[in-house]
Amino acid sequence: MLRSRFQSLPGAFNAFLIPVEKVEAPKKRGLKATLSRKFVEIPSSKEKEAAKFAQLWNKIISSFRDEDLINNREMNLLLVPYWADQDLDIIQWPPFLLASKIPIAVDMAKDSNEKDRDRELKKRLQADNYMQCAIRECYASCKNILNFLVKGQHEKRVINEIFAKINELIESDALISGLNMSNLPSLYEHFVQLIEYLMTNKKEDKDQVVIVLLNMLEVVTRDIIEDEVPSMVDSSHGGYIGKPEAMTPLDQQHQFFGDLSFPVNPEAEAWKEKLRRLHLLLTVKESAMDVPANLEARRRISFFSNSLFMDMPCAPKVRNMLSFSVLTPYYTEDVLFTINGLEKPNEDGVSILFYLQKIFPDEWTNFLERVGCSSEEGLRESEELEEQLRLWASYRGQTLTKTVRGMMYYRKALELQAFLDMAKDDDLMKGYKAAELSSEEHSKSERSLWAQCQAVADMKYTYVVSCQQYGIHKRAGDPRAKDILKLMTTYPSLRVAYIDEREEPSKDGSKKTVDKVYYSALVKAALPSKSIDSSEPGQSLDQEIYRIKLPGPAMLGEGKPENQNHAIIFTRGEALQTIDMNQDNYMEEAFKMRNLLQEFLIKHDGGRYPTILGLREHIFTGSVSSLAWFMSNQETSFVTIGQRLLADPLKVRFHYGHPDVFDRLFHLTRGGVSKASKVINLSFNSTLREGNVTHHEYIQVGKGRDVGLNQISMFEAKIANGNGEQTLSRDIYRLGHRFDFFRMLSCYVTTVGFYFSTMLTVLIVYIFLYGRLYLVLSGLEEALSTEPAFRDNKPLQVAMASQSFVQIGYLLALPMMMEIGLERGFRNALSDFIMMQLQMAPVFFTFSLGTRTHYYGRTLLHGGAEYRGTGRGFVVFHAKFAGNYRFYSRSHFVKGFELMILLLVYHIFGQSYRGSVAYILITISIWFMVVTWLFAPFLFNPSGFEWQKIIDDWNDWNKWISNRGGIGVPPEKSWESWWEKEQVHLRHSGKRGIIMEILLSIRFFLFQYGLVYHLNITKGTQSVLVYGASWLVIIFVLLIMKAVSVGRRRLSADFQLLFRLIKCLIFLTFFSVFITLLAIPAGLKARDIIVCILAFGPTGWGLLQIAQACRPLVQRAGIWGSVRTLACGYEISMGMLLFTPIAFLAWFPFVSEFQTRMLFNQAFSRGLQISRILGGPQKDRSSKNKE
């Protein structure tokens, strides 16, 4: 795509990224105008336009090299000459377009004396415009270099006559027939040798340069040009070079090129660049189709070049553009990775640095080339190289350093764009690099061009990072404060806002007390200073700019929105972009920012100016793991095809959050961009106050997503909680009343309706199973199955079979496939879809269904939404079994066990009259959901089926379940503390929530009621006394358990023998009753035992749920300890049921291998295997040292 469009690319650059010099007719907008738009190719006469394109293009390519996406060779192949050569009246395309053209042309030309080859060469030159450009440029450059190099007048006359002869042949179109091209490869080799000598530029090579020039002259005059050159015949050296009869002495031959401008001194950058470019054109013999090789670089260039052909406003001059600010909230995340943190291995022996080297192997190689090291050990030689290593790793994580670098691209882009606006023709032809180099010499002069460009950029752009805890970190000597200070020093225009808490004497004179006073402070990096008397180097410290006293503590609501609210006063300009700490930006996208800001001045949708501009996001964490890839694809479809639909035609796109650009003045006068609320951080206030939200896809911002299942689930929980609160909020209520009917429906479907529908989907599964169970237990299904109309109902069976595919979630992948197909082709979309199925994507999406349902439903019942920090690190560690159990017990495991019990009972009581095929068709999708909810956390857990990890997890689980809780004991250390925390939402719930919790728990008692009448011992009895007897059995078992618990507490210390005798008697009694019931003909059967377990298990859980909902009453009754003991028994039972199949699968090594190969990318798999081999002896040595 880039190659085919590159000739139109300079025209697109100058049409959109360069301000127009004259007032032109307004451009047509819309789909038809966009599809019919054409950009003319830039002719060589338009030097200014070509020079401006070169400056912008080269800045993009240089940023790729700085980010290590390309190596030095690829950079040289992609660059356009910085310094326009006035002597070359041709278009100088990037060498990657001209690669291999010269060697191919030379090879074809040597056989061109044959008629067929001559015709073929001419046909190729007419068809291949790039080959023509390469030949013309090499010819012009050769002429230019020889004229510069040769100083002797006679030699110049000879060279000029040779070029004049060639020019005559070119004009008469007789070049191939007029010259003997068979010896052209020899001339080509000598010329390459000459260029290499000129690139090294060593004085001792002057004799070799003379010899090469003589050889070139001999080849041209003796072998290629058949006619004699007049100046050579009248040689002042007394003979004609190349003729044996007039051979001159050898020492005189050397004097022929005795006067040369070699070595070149001083060697200008323009001269070096010309030689490098010419050498590439001559020597690159393979096609540069794979340049750049890095997939991320190819994606970025492709998107950028395509975006220039989209519908976007023209760019104004930097002086006339809208000014804007970027605001990033930061709390305590990573600023810059430490060397220790990068090299510290996890329990698998995989360090973050090792992991990154395997994930980004080409970028690691490019990094080593950039810093001039051959291996990782060379980076330890100096602190500067170690700092470069930290930066390289941090730029590939979700760190503040990466975000700041990306956002400061805006300033660099504005500096270059201001230079292109303000530079005169001479400065423009010299290039912005010359302006940068000369700025050091004229740094004190405020009138220098580069100083003016920097001043204009500072006027138009402000970047504020709201580091809430910076003051506390600075006083505590936290390394994060030093890293933030280092960022301010690296980027002098960066500003940091923080909340400063101080203790000041009370202003009330009668009381000698100290009051806490809160300030919002803004600081910047101070210039390095050095004391006159001290020999120590100066330190860079921060310098306070503003300090605003606050009326009280700033954290009224959630931390993140309040972090934005207190710092928004320090932003400037008409626009404000809110950027999260895990986002990134790109140089090529920064060039389009002033185009985007022009959207604020264009009326959209019936004559309204926009108040929020929505942007597209690219998820850059998709290569970390398969889960990250799933999230990346899902998010890509949401932020492209989804946001596009919401904005137009539905008109219900609200503030999505991350990269949106706000009309700053509009929102500052309407309460800011964030709500000071404990439950809702971002709101619909912009739309409610007649704002207009649009979406634009010609510009994108990078975004990091969660990469581990626990992180993803926390993110899903956060979003589901927020939607639950929005469902109950007045914002949605007001929007529903003020929207028209169609926008109201669109708003519902695209916001809370999605989560409400998700919850209904899961609820329908419950209703379907309980309804089926009612039909089975009541005998209705068996009676209906004998009816022909029901038994042979083929349409119903087809519908039941097809719905399973819908429930598995294939239709949810359709928007994702469409978006990938539109952007990368439908073959890629299909292959990605197949690969996602092989990597268990349906398992992941079905598991996410349960996460959203649980947290959305719980928020509707009890409220209590909160901001959840999901973490920004690399998930390359194994999560403990106890940790997974804590996180997913209530949201997935309990519900999964309930559905499994319902399916088992349905199978047991319906198998006598129903075939297995019908059962499978009806329940396959529900079984899939059950297995997914129960075992997906362990399937997506790194090294989840390794036997040694299973043993460690078992020990950790036993330790956690047996530890007693108490004040100060975290939930991660004790089951009791975690169990208490899981009930916090019930304590703050209202009466309606408590009543609903009790009513929902009654379903377990109805389930028990249906099963007790199907036991063999109660067959034929429909008396209510049977149900009452079942409750007596439950109460009796609970009393026995309570008696054993009391006995253990009171008798086990002093009367151990008596206590053991009592337990033995209880066991023998139970055993005797059990055997008796089995022995009598009308007693229990083996199936009845299973049914009793399935019936009484859920009943006990229902009692627990009711007891937790009515906790104050239970505590006053004095049986809360028994409730806790019963709950612990249930947790142990569920843990054992989950752990047993995992431990069984861990016996087979191929299961672990399959998991690693299929669920994680190949680089991570290699990392695990290599680290096991290399890490084994290291662990042994470390253990011996400890001993």
Automatic annotation (TrEMBL):
One cellular component term from this protein's GO annotations in UniProt: plasma membrane
An example Gene Ontology molecular-function term: 1,3-beta-D-glucan synthase activity
Domain Callose synthase helical: 94-284
Protein name: 1,3-beta-glucan synthase
Keyword set includes Coiled coil: no
Transmembrane stretches, start-end: 752-775, 916-940, 994-1012, 1024-1045, 1057-1080, 1086-1107, 1128-1150
UniProt domain Glycosyl transferase: residue ranges: 291-379, 380-995
Keyword terms of this UniProt record: Membrane, Transmembrane, Transmembrane helix
Protein's organism: Punica granatum
GO biological process, one term: (1->3)-beta-D-glucan biosynthetic process
PANTHER family assigned to the protein according to its UniProt record, in alphabetical order: CALLOSE SYNTHASE 2-RELATED, LYST-INTERACTING PROTEIN LIP5 DOPAMINE RESPONSIVE PROTEIN DRG-1
Iron-sulfur among keywords: no
Database matches in InterPro entries: CALS1_helical, Glyco_trans_48_dom
Domain of life: Eukaryota
